[in-house]
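Handoff note, outgoing to incoming analyst
You'll be picking up this chain. Sequence as last confirmed:
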Amino acid sequence: QVQLVESGGGLVQAGGSLRLSCAASGRTFSSYQMGWFRQAPGKEREFVATISRSGGYVYYADYADSVKGRFTISRDNAKNTVYLQMNSLKPEDTAVYYCAASGIVKLTREEDAYDYWGQGTQVTVSS
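Most recent structure output, in case you need it:
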């Protein structure tokens, strides 16, 4: 069982930055692929980014086209935490952001592949 708690959301002006954190419980954090998803008002939840589980010193990441070059996902296994650094924020980035954990090795964007989910943190970008 893994429990996930997101933090770091808030209100920011367009062009600004935020860093989201997701703290995980349990001692098996490093064995999970960790992803970020978001859901805007009136829209379905969508994939944002994912990072591979621990593989030595090399991690692989995948990003949605809409955030590529602006967002960076990272993880600190010693702290059981995954981060999402969000730069050059746009009003269309406004959403509730969720982190999730998947036991699948191959990087995946599929929600069904993620076993555990956090409660979400609100990000609002004003124009």
